[in-house]
Amino acid sequence: MPTISQVTEQQPTPTRQRFGFALLAYAFAAIMLGTTLPTPMYALYSDRMHFQVLTTTVIFSTYAVGVLAALLVFGRWSDALGRRPVLLAGAGFALASAVVFLFADDVPLLLVGRVLSGLSAGVFTGTATAAIVETSPPHQRDRATAIATVANIGGLGAGPLVAGVLVQYAPAPLQLSFAVHIVLVLLGVGAVLMAPETSSRTGTLGLQRLSVPAQMRPVFLTAATAAFAGFSVTGLFMAVVPTFVRSVIGIENHAVAGVVASSIFVASAIAQLSARRIPPRRAVAIGCAILVVGMVVLAVALHLASLPLLVVAGAVAGIGQGISFSRGLAAVAELAPADRRAEVSSTYFVVAYVAISVPVIAEGFASQHLGLRTAGVSFAVATAVLAAICLAAILVQERRIAAAG
User: Fold this and answer.
1) How many structural domains does the chain have?
2) Integer Cα distance of 298 and 313 in angstroms
3) Distance between CA atoms of 18 and 46, rounded to whole angstroms?
4) Engineered SS bond to 359: which of 28, 213, 232, 374, CB 3.0-4.6 Å?
5) What whole-number distance in Å separates Cα of residue 85 and Cα of residue 221?
6) Mean pLDDT lowest among 11-20, 102-111, 169-178, 310-319
7) Helices (H), 170-210
8) Contact, 287 vs 295, CB < 8 A?
9) Residue 71 has pLDDT above 90, yes or no
10) Is residue 5 assigned to a domain?
11) What's the whole-model pTM score?
């Protein structure tokens, strides 16, 4: 016989159901905000701990290690254990990360903090999205998906803004942001506890498999290539763009650096919501074309040391990244067999998070040999070429489909 608590979880009251998705959306945004909080602080860390851009990119990229570990190890756990326990675990990782950053005084602690932050994002992202959608009424599922997108990308974009302002204008520039985040996460824990449990707990524990069926590999390859190009730019803006603002453009204001870094996330969120009705393959092509334009603007911005152009580059690149990534995922999910959709989607996300880390570390290496400005321009050119190749591949695929039809 089920206990009273189990009955309550399975049959939430109408009021709890009505506000559950809002509570979960807040928790989602609060967790994701913490993953980008350090962005405006990397310049200060480098000054105080005496490291170069390469070390900055390595510290940033350990975040992706945590995300990938969480996706592969914990990706299926919420189906077996329930959404709430997994969300609370993700919040626990976020709290641990904030505490580590609060006291970090050397590079190893920064690395630990970033890994914990990645674990929090990897655990939270898929589970929170599923919980928000499941908590909403069936006729509002599209709206719930949009809310989950805004919570996710909005939290990422808010991180650099909040931290930039606090670092520039408040005391304790390397501590206050994380103290604020601890409070926000604790409120998020309360929100998760108040929201209803939505999982039927019918899944099984185990590692998430990665695979792509042979018949859909051409489509997957183009979508994943577009995601790789877009996420590499996102990584650049999170890890290196504040250093561009200070060292290339000559502006020391950390709030300005936060605004520039957040521009790509704001644009990405708007683009993802606006492009939901565009056919997936066409949308990926459009996103790649826009990303090429964004990289041209980025190269010119760095060459001219122009702050306005750097903000425009972030906005344009964010639009391209948002469209190509979200609709690329839709294209992949649309073609994947139902019983293998999780494997294919997880493989797609792995490609995206590898793109956040590896190209950015390459940028760090290049900056040591070419200088920061030249390395940034080279990064923009390489990404533009990759996006253009992807665009050409999609056009060839479309022509073959049209000829066959």
Assistant:
1) 2
2) 5
3) 46
4) 232
5) 35
6) 11-20
7) 176-194
8) no
9) no
10) no
11) 0.90
Q: Taking residues 195-221, report their average pLDDT.
A: 82
pLDDT at 176 > cutoff 70: yes
Question: Comparing C-alpha atoms, which of 28, 32, 6, 12 is closest to residue 194?
Answer: 12
Neighbours of 161 (CB within 10 A): 21
- Which of 259, 267, 273 lies closest to 291 in space, CA to CA? 267
pLDDT band at 401 (very low <50, low <70, confident <90, very high): confident
- The predicted model gives 310-315 an average pLDDT of 97
Asked if the structure places residue 1 within a domain, the reply is: no
Handedness of CA 202, 204, 210, 214 (dihedral sign): negative
Residues 262 and 344 in one domain: yes
Write out the H or E segment, with its range, that includes residue 302: helix 280-304
Q: Classify residue 328: in a domain, yes or no.
A: yes
pLDDT at residue 7 in the model? 29
What are 24's two structure tokens?
A: 């979960």
For 159, the domain range is 12-196
Residue 13 has pLDDT above 60, yes or no: no
What CA–CA distance (Å, rounded) separates 115 from 117?
A: 5
With both helix axes pointing from N to C terminus, report the angle between 107-135 and 42-49 in degrees, rounded to the nearest 10: 160
Residue (of 199, 185, 156) closest to 91 by Cα position? 185
Instruction: Look at residue 81 and tell me if it is in a domain.
Output: yes
Q: Are residues 227 and 357 in the same domain?
A: yes
Q: Report the C-alpha gap between 373 and 213 in whole angstroms.
A: 42
For residues 43 and 55, what is the distance between their CA atoms, to the nearest angstrom? 11
Q: Calculate Rg over the CA atoms of the chain.
A: 21
The answer to whether 60 touches 239, Cβ cutoff 8 Å, is yes
The position carrying tokens 């066959």 is 404
Is residue 158 located within the same domain as residue 220?
no
Q: Are 365 and 222 part of one and the same domain?
A: yes
Query: Which of 77-86, 112-121, 215-224 has the highest mean predicted lDDT (pLDDT)?
Result: 112-121
Residue 93, pLDDT > 80, answer: yes
Q: At 91, is the pLDDT very low, low, confident or very high (cuts 50, 70, 90)?
A: very high
Q: What angle do CA 396, 398, 403 make, to 5 degrees?
A: 95
For residues 387 and 328, the answer to whether their CB atoms sit within 8 Å is no
| Mean pLDDT of the residues in the chain | 89
With residue 260 as reference, give the H or E element that holds it.
helix 254-274
Of 86, 83, 81, nearest in space to 202 by CA: 81
Q: H-type helices in 75-175, by residue range?
A: 77-81, 83-103, 107-135, 141-169
